[in-house]
Design a protein that fits this description.
Helix content is 38%, strand content 21%. The chain is an alpha/beta fold and 278 residues long. The chain folds into two domains: 217 residues, Spore Coat Polysaccharide Biosynthesis Protein SpsA, Chain A, CATH 3.90.550; 49 residues, no CATH class. Helix 2 links the parallel strand 2 and strand 3. Helix 1 packs parallel to helix 2 and helix 8 runs antiparallel to helix 9. The protein is globular, with a radius of gyration of 18 Å. The termini are far apart.
């Protein structure tokens, strides 16, 4: 298997705190042939930092959007602007080790077609529940609010743990699979687009799994801290879109109304908590 067949796509928006370290790690990562940075109207020094990497390394190219069209749109832009047979979507606050993407690709080849995530760990060593998730079941959430927690426990003895969904903070899949399912749904602005992509990949016959033996540091929420209300609004909007797309047609009108009330009824409290978060 040759080296240099992964295109890494990074979507930035006011990511100056972490983008330099993220790109340093990606440039040192094995098997990375292309690095595409899609910037969604950063107002800080993000683009200056990206430009330095682009000057130093011909694999790095960037697109500076004049506005913020959303995460899904930007991911698709990055995929279209690259050509390598594998695509890795990497958040600007993810720091990959040199062999991480290469090992993920090897796992994916072994169970192809596959969409893989990694074992995401924060700076304090805490695991991110979003790295392994089940599909949302909104009707079940109405009966039991605990079902709103989608995280699945890590099975330490399994190097590759099959799950319903992995986190969009770090995903790797073959370009052929990404193209065949139409890429990210651009109707999402922020949040739930990763759940959607994983569900459609499974429907197309792909394995979705977390590489438990590939640890990646993920400094969560660096960009979102600047605009907490914006983030919470689109998180709830994304969940409603996901429900309408995958579940609403199987539910009664009253159930749909109840799910709408459940999702949007949580928004005010979530917005207040986000605004108060340090």
């Amino acid at each position: 298997m040759k080296d240099g067949d992964i295109a890494a796509v990074v979507v930035t928006c006011n990511s100056e705190e972490t983008i330099d370290a993220c790109l340093q790690r990606l440039r040192a990562a094995r098997a990375v042939a292309e690095i595409r940075v899609i910037d969604n109207d950063s107002r800080d020094s993000t683009m200056e930092l990206v430009q330095k990497h682009a000057i130093a390394d011909p694999r790095v190219r960037f697109i500076a959007n004049p506005d913020n069209p959303g995460f899904a749109v930007a991911c698709n832009q990055g995929a279209r602007d690259s050509a390598a047979p594998w695509v890795a979507f990497v958040n600007p606050d993810c720091f990959v080790e040199p062999e991480a993407l290469q090992r993920m690709r090897m796992h994916a080849v072994a169970c192809a077609p596959a969409l893989l995530g990694a074992d995401l760990i924060d700076e304090d060593g805490r695991r991110d529940d979003a790295a392994r998730r089940r599909d949302p079941d909104f009707a079940a959430m109405l009966r039991n609010p605990a079902r709103s927690r989608l995280g699945v426990a890590r099975e330490a003895l399994q190097p590759l743990q099959q799950v319903d969904a992995v986190s969009g903070a770090l995903m790797l899949l073959p370009r052929a699979l990404f193209n065949s399912i139409g890429g990210f749904d651009e109707g999402y602005r922020l949040h739930a687009e990763d759940l959607d992509l994983c569900r459609r990949a499974r429907a197309a016959g792909a394995v979705v799994a977390c590489a438990n033996d590939v640890g990646v540091v993920h400094v969560r929420g660096v960009s979102s801290r600047r605009r907490p209300l914006f983030v919470e609004w689109h998180k709830h909007r994304g969940l409603w879109r996901y429900f309408r797309k995958f579940e609403a047609s199987r539910r009664t009108f009253l159930m749909r109304v109840a799910v709408f009330a459940m999702i949007w009824g949580r928004f005010p409290l979530a917005a207040v908590r986000a605004a108060m978060r340090p």
